[in-house]
Amino acid sequence: MRSILLLASLALNVWLAITVVRLENVHYGVLLGACSQEDSLSVRDPLQRPAYLKCLEEEQTRTGPWYHLAYALGIL
Fold first, then answer.
1. Is 7 exposed, middle or buried (0-12, 13-18, 19+ CB in 10 A)?
2. Exposure of 68 by Cβ count < 10 A (0-12 exposed, 13-18 middle, 19+ buried)?
3. Across the chain, how many H-helices and E-strands are there?
4. Is the pLDDT of residue 32 over 70?
5. Positive or negative, the Cα torsion across 20, 22, 25, 29?
6. Residue closest to 56 by CA, chosen among 29, 19, 28, 23
């Protein structure tokens, strides 16, 4: 039972770390203006918003996921 809880906790932590890395990439992409000006202006239109978010998720803003995680956790 103890090992099952340990594995569940580990899986949850990995899942949360992946989510934090993805969200920090999008956050930093918005701050940098990583997508084009036309895409950022289309955020007001709800039909165009998914295209802007897809652009932000595809853009790699830092050197790697470990840097995103460290920055999001306040280590850097």
1. exposed
2. buried
3. 4, 0
4. yes
5. negative
6. 29
Q: Which residues neighbour 46 within 8 Å (Cβ) at sequence distance 6 or greater?
A: none
| Number of other residues whose CB lies within 10 A of the CB of residue 42 | 17
Instruction: Tell me the per-residue pLDDT of 1-30, one tens digit each, with 9 for 90 and over.
Output: 899 999 999 999 999 999 999 999 999 998
61 in Cβ contact with 28 (< 8 Å): yes
Q: What pLDDT, on a 0 to 100 scale, did the predictor assign at position 20?
A: 95
Please state, in angstroms and rounded to a whole number, the distance separating the CA atoms of residues 56 and 73.
21
Alpha carbon distances (Å) from 40 to 23, 46, 47, 60, 68: 17, 12, 13, 17, 22
- Predicted TM-score (pTM) of the model is 0.79
